[in-house]
Amino acid sequence: MAISIRWYITVNAIHWRIKKGTMNIAEVMRISWEAVGKNKVRSLLTMLGIIIGVAAVIIMIAVSNGTASAIASQITSLGSNLIFITPNFTRNGPATAAQTGTGLVFTDAAAIQQSVPNVAGVSVEQGTTETVKAGAVSLSSISILGTLPDFPTVRSMTVATGAFFAASDQNNKTKVAVLGPELAQQLFGTADPVGQTVQVGNFYLDVIGVFAPKGTVGSVDYDARLYLPLATVLQYYTPSRFARFLGQRVQTIYVTVANPKLMSDTIDQITLLLDQRHGVSAATPDFTITTQQNIISTQESTTAAFRSLLAWVAGISLIVGGIGIMNIMLVSVTERTREIGLRQSVGATPNDIRWQFLSEALLLSIIGGLIGILVGVGGSWLFGAVGTMKTVVAPSSIFLAFFSAAAVGAFFGFYPANQAALLDPIDALRHE
Amino acid sequence: MNATRTVISTTDLTKTYGMGDASVVALDHVSLEVQSGELVAIMGPSGSGKSTLMNILGCLSTPTSGEYCLDGQDVSGLNKVELAGIRNTKIGYIFQSYNLLARTSALRNVILPLVYDRSHKHTREEWEQLAKDMLERVGLGDRMDHQPQELSGGQQQRVAIARALITDPVMIIADEPTGNLDSHSGEEIMKLLLKLHDQGATIVIVTHDPVVAQYTQRVIHLKDGHIDSVVHNSQRHPLAD
After folding, report:
1. Which pLDDT does position A19 carry in this prediction?
2. What is the dihedral of CA A391, A397, A401, A404, to 10 degrees?
3. Helical axes A350-386 vs B80-90, angle rounded to 10°
4. Which B residues 183-222 touch A at CB under 8 Å?
5. In chain A, what residues touch B58 (CB-CB under 8 Å)?
6. DSSP codes joined into one string, A243-289
7. B218 has which bridge partners?
8. Which of 105-134 (B) contact A at CB < 8 A?
């Protein structure tokens, strides 16, 4: 409270003096500019802290922004309005006493498609890993994804060469495969994989298509996977022992929603349907429903925490820079005591002296801030161009960094400026 | 110069430092007057109070008691800001060690007091011309762009004199103006001060050098904080006549 009142008075005093035109503002700036220019090396060293601080703020925000936007664009590119349904357990065999329900089964997907309104498409995925061989090349632990013919539509993926498998492949459990582009390159090099044969586990599959590049989303590399008809995977790679009675267990069911505004209503209906089908109560479901939005907001909260940590680090380096300015200003006041005495003797008031040193501190931090912006923007660009990191410079971070620098200059410049203003002219003139 | 007026008038000027038993009386009821156009010397051994008197006359400090009228205005009770204004408009200082701003041209050094001129008597555009005039007046018309380190001691003191003159003060206070100079340069400076005196300037010189005091019309001797004697120079320095 006391501080704010004092600050208010100071600000008003400054304002009043500007209005009264006590001392030419241009002249104050000229004197400061000269003082900064006379000691170029020292000024640069003084500014270094501010330069590093401002550049750090801009680069760190650019990196975290770039990461966030890369994640967001990848997730959205997978298909919008997506609902993921996963089972809460994936054991083979009948449920134990602790587990209620049957788990997620293949026929659940068809039931959702048939009875829930506002559903545009349903896709089922079943993953496993196998060793994949083509000719002399052998790759172990390759992700196999069993899915339905509408997978490319639901997940917004494009087949670059060949075709995706059809409903008939699904029904007939045909041994066909579509490759991710990276995997295709590893197995066949530059040759066209379509029409060739790959050995996946103990079975030979015909390659019928290759996807266009998609990249990595989260921990999943979409380009290094093998895509098979779901029924083929269930039949040959992940057979469940009680499939005849309980249905084929699956790992994920994807649902695309026609109208995103009715998303929560659709989720409620799917929940009711699955509760009923699995014979579980709403309190103890045997499945989990997640949306694209959930994943994005989880990512966002992670990057937000990361970002605020970086902001603190950068903020601390700005404060350290400010202390550097205060240090040099105190040295400067001591060094120039006679000059201060002389200025007082020819008519400088305490406020004139205060202004002179404050504006010098401000000038140092503003020049430091501007250099820091150049270094920060240049550094962000360099990081983006040279490394694999994506950087997006936020205009707001430039303003934030610049005004923080100016505020630091004003804050840490005030004490030395005040020390100078309070000097007694007689003592100052006598100072050796 | 026609009618003279009283520039300095002090009544019982007293300055004490410290409090109670530890207090020291630096100036003890000093009353003096200086008329416009006068050239006066204040002399005294160290500890006599001449520096204290000079600081009060120069409005760098205020008396503990007593009255000081400068140019008809009572300045004994003014605050820091008001005193700064008085120093700016009414007083020109000349220091023993010149006190020029380093790495700053003679011209900018002379302009310095105008920077703090609150009355804005002159516009910024006029500053340079005014400073040039002053430098020409002290014989440094050809050294305006030189920095102090490129000038001799005598030349530096001339720049300081030009700086003291630029605000057209009612008096000039010179504190040992020749103290750092060899005898020849010192004589040159005294000649310049005499010339200004002839042009009507009021000059108070604080010195312990009897040769310097010889140039003046009146010598005020201080001792132990009070005026010991006032000597009117009948035998002035030959240059003074």
Report:
1. 42
2. -150
3. 100
4. none
5. 345
6. HHHH--B-SEEEEEES-GGGHHHHHHHHHHHHHHHHT--TTS-SEEE
7. B40, B232
8. 112-113, 115-118, 120, 124
Helix (H, G, I), strand (E, B) or coil at B178: coil
Could you tell me the two tokens for A171?
């029904």
Higher pLDDT, B200 or B120: B200
Give the residue-averaged pLDDT of A182-197: 89
Quickly tell me which residue has 């075709």 as its tokens. Answer: A163
Task: Say how far apart CA A219 and CA A16 lie, in whole Å.
Answer: 61
| Contact predicate A377/A58, CB 8 Å | yes
> Residue B193 pLDDT more than 90?
yes
Backbone angles phi, psi at A30, to 5 degrees: -65, -45
Chain B within 8 Å of A420 (Cβ-Cβ)? Answer: no
The kind and range of the H/E element at B151 are: none
Q: What is the maximum alpha-carbon separation in chain A?
A: 104
Nearest CA in chain B to A338: B99
Question: Mind listing the pLDDT tens digit for each residue in A137-161?
Answer: 888 888 899 888 888 877 778 888 9
What ipTM was assigned to the predicted interfaces of this complex?
0.94
Q: Does B155 touch chain A (CB under 8 A)?
A: no
pLDDT above 70 covers what percent of chain A? Answer: 88
Mean pLDDT value of segment A227-249: 79
pTM exceeds 0.90 for this model: no
- Chain B, residues 18-57, CB within 8 A of chain A, namely 55
- Structure confidence at residue A18 (pLDDT): 46
Scanning the structure block, which residue is given the tokens 């992700």?
A143
Mutate to test the interface with A, among B94, B116, B173 (most CBs of A within 10 A): B116
A195: left (phi over 0), alpha (psi -120 to 50) or beta: left
Give the closest residue to A347 by CA, choosing from B46, B139, B190, B58: B58
CA geometry: angle at A75 spanning A69 and A80, to 5°?
120
CATH architecture, domain defined by B6-16+26-240:
3-Layer(aba) Sandwich (3.40)
Q: Which residue has the higher pLDDT, B53 or A303?
A: B53
Q: Which helix (H) or strand (E) holds A21?
A: none
Q: Which residues of B touch A347 (CB under 8 A)?
A: 84-85, 87-89, 113, 116-117, 167
Please count the other Cβ atoms lying within 10 Å of the Cβ belonging to residue B146: 16
CB contact under 8 A, A348 and B116: yes
Residue A349: burial class (beta carbons within 10 Å; 0-12, 13-18, 19+): buried
Chain B closest-CA separation from residue A426 CA (Å): 7
- pLDDT digits over B61-98, tens only? 999 999 999 999 999 889 999 999 999 999 999 999 99
Contact predicate A253/A124, CB 8 Å: yes
Q: Which of A173, A188, A167, A184 is nearest to A226 (CA)?
A: A184
Residues A1-47 pLDDT 10s: 444 555 554 544 444 444 444 566 777 788 888 888 888 888 898 89
Give the strand pairing for B203-206 and B171-175: parallel
CA angle at B215 for the pair B214 and B220, rounded to the nearest 5°: 60
